[in-house]
Amino acid sequence: MAKKNDNKPNNGVAQGTEPERTGNGKSTVDEIHELTTIGEKSLENSTEPAGNDEPASNVSEAEGQVKKLPFPKSIFFIISYEFCRGFHYYGMRTILVLYLSRQLDYDDDTTTVIFHVYAMLGYFLCVFGAIISDSWLGKFKTILYLSFIYVAGSALVTLGAVPPLNLPATTFTMVGLGLMSLGSGLVKPSISAFGGDQFKLPEQVKQMTTFFSMYYFVVNAGSLISITATPILRDDVHCFGEKDCYSLAFGLPASFVVISIVVFAIGRPLYKNKPPAGNMVVLVSKTIGNAIATKWREKKTNPREHWLDYADKKYDRQLIEDVKVLMRVLVLYLPLPVFWALFDQQGSRWTIQAARMDGDMGSWNIKPDQMQLLNPLLILVFIPLYELVFYPLLAFVGIRRPLQKLTLGGIFAGIAFVVSGVVELSLEDTYPILPTAGNAHLRVYNGENCDYAITSNLTGLNFDIASLDMFVNRSINIDSTNHLYVEFEFTEKAGLNCFEFPKQTFAFDTTTAHYLFLNSKNTTHPLIWGQDTISKPSRGYPFVRTLANVQAGRQIEWRNKKGSIEHTEPANLRNETELKSGDYDVLVDNTLAASEYLSVGGRYTIIINEETTGVYKSNVVIITEPNSMSIFWLIPQYVIMTLAEVMFSVTGLEFSYAQAPVSMKSVLQACWLLTVAFGNVIVVIIAELKLFDSQADEFFLFAGIMFVDMIIFMFVAYRYKPNNPNSQSEAEPLTPAETNKKAGNDNVAKTIDD
C-alpha cells in the first residue's frame, strides 16, 4: 500500500546550497537521491490522469508522460546564475589569503582568522536564509533581493584593491567580506531548492535528476575556471604601477555576480514560484523549546518517558517522533566540525604553505593559490572511482557500512595533516635563522677592491673579508640592557690603493640583524651602518638591494631580459626592491654591472665596485635562500584530503538523509551547514591562541585532534540506534504552516505571490 506522503514531495526537502563542493556542494548529490526516491515512489503509485484524462494503467504509461513534458526553460537561467556565482565565490576565495597577507600586510595567523571568520559567518547565516525564504520572502525574492548584498560586498573589496582611488583598503575589505558573508549565507539555502521547484513531480523526476547533475557540473566548471584564471590575473598582469593586479583579479569575479543577477531576473516570467509555507527549522526549534519549558513546569507532576513528549499538548505526535529521530542523528553530528576545521584550511594554511615553495617550472610558474585547483579536479576523478574501485575494495576488507566509511574519511583527513606537517618540517629547514631575544646578527659587505682584516673589542669577533664579499655572524649575544657597543678596527690585507677606514663604534640592538657596508667612494659616510631584513618575503616575490660603491650621482636600473626597465633608483639609496622572479640585468648609468636570476622567496644583495670610471665589478650574495622545495610536494596531502572529502561528505549526507524523517530534511541540511561553520570556529580559536612557533606543530595538533575525534565518533556510532524510515506513520506529514495552525499559532507568514 502506497504511503500518502509519497504522493508529493514534502515541503521540508533539503534546501539548496552555495556553490561550494565541500560540506554543502556535495548535498546536491543527496538532493538527487532524496528527490529521485520520492519521485520514483510517487511515479509508481501515481493515479493522476494521463494525457487523455484516463488513469495511467501502469508505470510504463506513466513514464510515457514524462517524455511529453518539456525540460523547463527556467532551469537554464538558474544554472547560469549558479555558474556566475560559483565563478565569483571560488575566484575571490582563491586569492583572498594572499591579498590579506601580501597587500594588507596581515601576519599568517591573522590572515587565517579573517579567512575562516568569513567562511564561518556564511555558514551560520544559512539557517536565517532558510527562515527568510520559507517563512517570508519565498525563494525567488530571497535570491534576487539578497544577492544585491553580495554584489555590494564584492564591489567594496574590489574598490579597496584599486590603488589610484586611495581608499582605506583594510576597511573596505573587512566591510566587503562581511557583506559577502551575509549575502552568501542568506541566499545559499534557496538556490538548488528553487531549481527543484521548477519540475512537476512525479512526471519530471528524471529531468530533475538531470538538473542536479547540471547544477553540480556548472559549480565545478565555474570553480575550475576561476581558480585557474584569478591567480593569473593577480600575478601576471601589471596594473596601476603595481607588480600584481588584485583589482582586476577581484573585479572580474565581481562582474560575474552582477551578470548573475541580471540573468536570474530575466528568467522571472518562466519561473514557477511556490509561496512560503513556514520553515521547519523554526518549527523544530519551537517544539524543542516548548518541550523544555513544559518539562520544567511539569516534571514532578506529569513525568514522561522522553523529554520531548512534554510538547505533545501543543504539537503533533508524528512531529515529536520525527524530532526524536532527528536528535539521535544530530548526536552523530557533534564530532563532525573537526573534519571541516581541517578541510577548510586548504584555502588558508595550505595556501600560505604553498607560497613558501617553488612553483617554477621554467616557462610555466605554478602560483601558490593555483594549488587549490587540485581539489575540484580530483573530485571529478574520485567520485566515479569510488563507485567502481574504492568502495568494492573497502567492502572486500569489511568496510561496508556508512558510518565505517565516514570514520575512514575522518582518519584520511588526519593523515593529510600529518603529511602537511612533515612537509612543513622540511620547509622549516629552508627558512632563515632570525635573531631572537638577547641575540643580534651582523653582516659586513665589502664594496672595496681590497681585502680587509676587521678586529673588535668583543672576544671572537675578529674576521677577514675579501673584496666584494659578505661576512656573517648570527651569534652576537646582548645582555639585559638590550644594547651592545662594539668598536671595529680595519686593516688592509691585499689590494692596491686601499682606503684606510677609521676606527668606529656601532650600537647593536637585540633581535636585530645589522649590516655594515664599506664604500670609500662615499666621501661623507664611507662606513654605512643599518638594519638588514632577512625574513622570507611576505608577498613571496624576491627582494633585491644594490650596495654600490660608485661615484656620486650614478643611477641604478634593473631590466628584465626583454629589455623592460623594472626599477630605477639613485646608486646611494640602498633600499630593498621587490621584483618578479626571472632574469635581470643591473645597469649603472646604462652600463651593465651584473646579471642575476631572481627566484621566488629569496633576498639578494648586489655588491658593485666602480674600478675605474664606467668600469664595474660586482658580486651577488644571497641573504635569504629562495624557495627551494618543489610545490609538487603538496600533491600527496591534497590527494589524501580529497579522498577524505568524497568519503566523508557524500557518505555522511547520504546516511543522515536516509536516517532522518522526510519532514526533517531541511532541518538536517541546516545542521550539516552549521557543522562546517563550527569547524571554522575551531580554526579561528587555535590560530588566535598562537600555541606554537612552528606551523608544523600546529598541523600535527590538528591531526591529533582529528584522530581523537574519530575515536569519539566511533564510540557514538557504536551506540547509535538506526532509524527505519519505512516504519513511520502512513499519514501524510503536516507542513510547518499546518502544524503551527494545529498548535494555535496562526501568525504564520502570509502567502506571497512571487
UniProtKB/TrEMBL annotation:
<feature type="compositionally biased region" description="Polar residues">
    <location>
        <begin position="44"/>
        <end position="60"/>
    </location>
</feature>
<feature type="transmembrane region" description="Helical">
    <location>
        <begin position="631"/>
        <end position="655"/>
    </location>
</feature>
<keyword id="KW-0813">Transport</keyword>
<feature type="transmembrane region" description="Helical">
    <location>
        <begin position="208"/>
        <end position="234"/>
    </location>
</feature>
<feature type="transmembrane region" description="Helical">
    <location>
        <begin position="325"/>
        <end position="343"/>
    </location>
</feature>
<feature type="transmembrane region" description="Helical">
    <location>
        <begin position="168"/>
        <end position="187"/>
    </location>
</feature>
<feature type="transmembrane region" description="Helical">
    <location>
        <begin position="75"/>
        <end position="101"/>
    </location>
</feature>
<feature type="compositionally biased region" description="Basic and acidic residues">
    <location>
        <begin position="18"/>
        <end position="34"/>
    </location>
</feature>
<feature type="transmembrane region" description="Helical">
    <location>
        <begin position="406"/>
        <end position="427"/>
    </location>
</feature>
<dbReference type="GO" id="GO:0016020">
    <property type="term" value="C:membrane"/>
</dbReference>
<dbReference type="Pfam" id="PF00854">
    <property type="entry name" value="PTR2"/>
</dbReference>
<protein>
    <submittedName>
        <fullName>Peptide transporter family 1-like</fullName>
    </submittedName>
</protein>
<dbReference type="InterPro" id="IPR018456">
    <property type="entry name" value="PTR2_symporter_CS"/>
</dbReference>
<keyword id="KW-0812">Transmembrane</keyword>
<feature type="transmembrane region" description="Helical">
    <location>
        <begin position="377"/>
        <end position="399"/>
    </location>
</feature>
<keyword id="KW-1133">Transmembrane helix</keyword>
<dbReference type="GO" id="GO:0015031">
    <property type="term" value="P:protein transport"/>
</dbReference>
<feature type="region of interest" description="Disordered">
    <location>
        <begin position="1"/>
        <end position="61"/>
    </location>
</feature>
<feature type="transmembrane region" description="Helical">
    <location>
        <begin position="699"/>
        <end position="718"/>
    </location>
</feature>
<feature type="transmembrane region" description="Helical">
    <location>
        <begin position="667"/>
        <end position="687"/>
    </location>
</feature>
<feature type="transmembrane region" description="Helical">
    <location>
        <begin position="246"/>
        <end position="266"/>
    </location>
</feature>
<feature type="region of interest" description="Disordered">
    <location>
        <begin position="725"/>
        <end position="754"/>
    </location>
</feature>
<keyword id="KW-0472">Membrane</keyword>
<dbReference type="InterPro" id="IPR000109">
    <property type="entry name" value="POT_fam"/>
</dbReference>
<dbReference type="InterPro" id="IPR036259">
    <property type="entry name" value="MFS_trans_sf"/>
</dbReference>
<keyword id="KW-0653">Protein transport</keyword>
<feature type="transmembrane region" description="Helical">
    <location>
        <begin position="143"/>
        <end position="162"/>
    </location>
</feature>
<dbReference type="GO" id="GO:0022857">
    <property type="term" value="F:transmembrane transporter activity"/>
</dbReference>
<dbReference type="GO" id="GO:0006857">
    <property type="term" value="P:oligopeptide transport"/>
</dbReference>
<feature type="transmembrane region" description="Helical">
    <location>
        <begin position="113"/>
        <end position="131"/>
    </location>
</feature>
<keyword id="KW-0571">Peptide transport</keyword>
<comment type="similarity">
    <text>Belongs to the major facilitator superfamily. Proton-dependent oligopeptide transporter (POT/PTR) (TC 2.A.17) family.</text>
</comment>
